[in-house]
Amino acid sequence: MNNKNLKFNIGIDIGGTKIVLGIIASNGDIIKLKRINTGSEKGKKYVLNNVIGNIYSLLKISDIPAKEINSIGFGIPGTINSKKGIVDFAPNLKWKNFNFINLIKKELPFDIFLGQDTKAAVLGEYYFGAGRGCSNLVCITIGTGIGSGIIINGKIYFGSYGTAGEIGHMIVGKNNIVCECGKTGCLETYAAGTYIALKARDVISKKGHVFEEIENIEKDNLTAIETFLLAKRGNKKAIEIVNEVVEYLGIGLVNIINILCPEKIILSGGLSNEEELLIQPLQNFVKNRAYSIISNKVKIEKAKLGEFAPVVGASLFYKEKSFKYEGE
Questions:
Q1: Full-prediction pTM beyond 0.70?
Q2: Topology (CATH level 3) of domain 130-303
């Protein structure tokens, strides 16, 4: 690779269960990636110290010296005050009023940018993915939780208080499951990876052939991805769970389409690879249920950058002044 005309930025996607760190070139090329467990149950300082150590480890195993790093961007699943470097609320990490940057700025000699992971994902897709050429789009990330980033007229939309895009906390039903946000009936409690897995563990029996097709799986370790795998292989209980996920996600997508009228809705996260069981059924749901004038016009696509949309997007935070840390 000819590095002469390229800038390099580090993007970090901090998720509820895993963290992805990447060195990303200014043309969108992924130079080097590293995955680590989040370990949020061990406390905030553990997570940050682990991230800092792995940033330097990432630089060490790459061919890019630290002096060539233009900036570092952090994508976090929650409400963020980027200018003050504070995580106001990240329910899936159990962080609240956390002065994130204050604890790391002395350890990292780079320009630091901080924002929500879903805004990172939509930024990545807007510049280098399925959203290229679109002025109005929504990127929905399905992971431990569910969130979305919104671009309107070529600009990320924050809303008046910075919380725009919290689709995971859209009320879509009347269940009594308490979401990490403290409310009930949230879309997350019907369709996020965490709750898909919990439901699967609850309703899928280990008797008979159910787990024989997935070697070494224990009921208590069953994940959302494995639930979809069981559905592909014909397990009736898993199929019921997947169909319910599609229905509730479809409700969320239709509401977004009817309110915002985007050109595209892009799905990212591990489940976005499920073309037959997720993407296609959602496309059909939207065509049948969205406002008829636009139901056939809005495209539903999986993220071109896949699960790496947030890490690529976080590396692009330097392009947006709204994500720049300005001190307290």
A1: yes
A2: Nucleotidyltransferase; domain 5 (3.30.420)
